Amino acid sequence: MTRQDNTLRAKSCQDNFSLFRVTSSVRAQTTRAQAVSTTTAVKMAEYANEDLLYTANIGYLEGVEAALKAGADIDYAREGDDINVSGRTALFFACFAGHAAVVRLLIRKGASLTKRSSETSSAPLHVAAARGHTEVVELLVQHGATLDIRDAYQKTPLMMACICYKVDTVERLIELGARPDLTDVYGLTAKECCTEDELNEDREDYDCERKEMMKMLQEAVETKLLRCCNPTCGKPGYRSTGTLKLCGRCKLTRYCSRDCQRQHWTVGHKKCCGHDACSDDAPNPFWQLVKRQLRKEQK
């Protein structure tokens, strides 16, 4: 091998090594760029999720749209030890505050009607009823929410409206077909829930509201009148005659015909059916959070 051959081979090796270094550097830079891009995307998604909760809570419709466009998870719920926010979605916050336009948008975008809060396993319909936001209650029911959905204490939205003295909401829930004869874990019916608020029992205005609610509930119980749970129908029926048939899956919704059941299924009950009841065997979510908070404070 001549000196020229050695020189050419050395130069070739040097070129190959340089090419290897360049390729390795490009690969490393690409990997770092991908990592940064992924981290940035995750951070942006986290910010978008928090923005979604905030804007839904204050009723800022354009902000909700912007957060969803930025990639926010429509059913995102902040988890943690704070029992006031844990498990609550944007829809839950909007229902709590009574922002009907935001609720309408979130439902149209596919928000879950059955995702529950962590403290009492309350669904959006529970909190809308408790706050007396009748328009929001109607929106949820029209899109398939189950009227008699249960929380961790087996309370229905009707019971929550009674406890909070929301007369108009109680009246509308009865008109929509909510059952007044169901009981919670303490054996209390909606009528008996009207007397739970001892703090306001001496106020005359609350006494008038209590009497009005108890009268409506008593009439509903005595007549044994139920209604088809398809909100576009509402055909009456009586428990004793069996004219209304229960949904075979959730056993909570009633229909006057197969057509009504199909229609209610397509507008939203399909997503809610099977997620309506809160199991008696499940650990109480409120006390789970309290225990976590106590352990955190003891550290």
From TrEMBL:
Q: Which UniProt keywords apply?
A: ANK repeat, Metal-binding, Zinc, Zinc-finger
ANK repeat locations: 86-118, 120-152
Q: Which Gene3D superfamilies match?
A: 6.10.140.2220, Ankyrin repeat-containing domain
* A matching Pfam family: Ank_2
Q: Which GO terms describe its molecular function?
A: zinc ion binding
- What region holds the MYND-type domain? 230-273
Q: Does Zinc show up as a keyword for this record?
A: yes
Keyword flag Zinc: yes
Q: What is this protein called?
A: Tankyrase-2-like
What's the name of its gene?
LOC109466540
